[in-house]
Design a protein that fits this description.
2 helices, single chain, mainly alpha
């Protein structure tokens, strides 16, 4: 990293720390409020991401299970016609 990038990053960190000090201590109750840092929105997104990933994982299994079953069915039909193993 260049010196300019490091100084810029340091300035951002200091601004963030000053803003957090100005706001004061936060509680779990603050997550329900949609204030200037949009805590409620961030909280909902943080909860939704794992839920959507779980749904996506299940959908992936369902999607490929049909393909796998069709593949096995075709294999059985080929074995039945040819009378041998693949």
């Amino acid at each position: 990293m260049s010196k300019h990038a490091i100084v810029s990053l340091h300035d951002d960190i200091m601004k963030t720390a000053a803003m957090e000090a100005k706001i004061g201590d936060r509680t779990w109750e603050d997550l329900r409020e949609n204030d200037n840092i949009q805590g409620q929105r961030r909280f909902l997104i943080a909860c939704a991401i794992p839920a959507f990933r779980q749904i996506d994982g299940i959908n992936t299994i369902v999607y490929y299970s049909g393909t796998e079953m069709m593949s096995r069915q075709c294999t059985r039909q080929i074995r039945g016609r040819e009378g041998g193993d693949l």
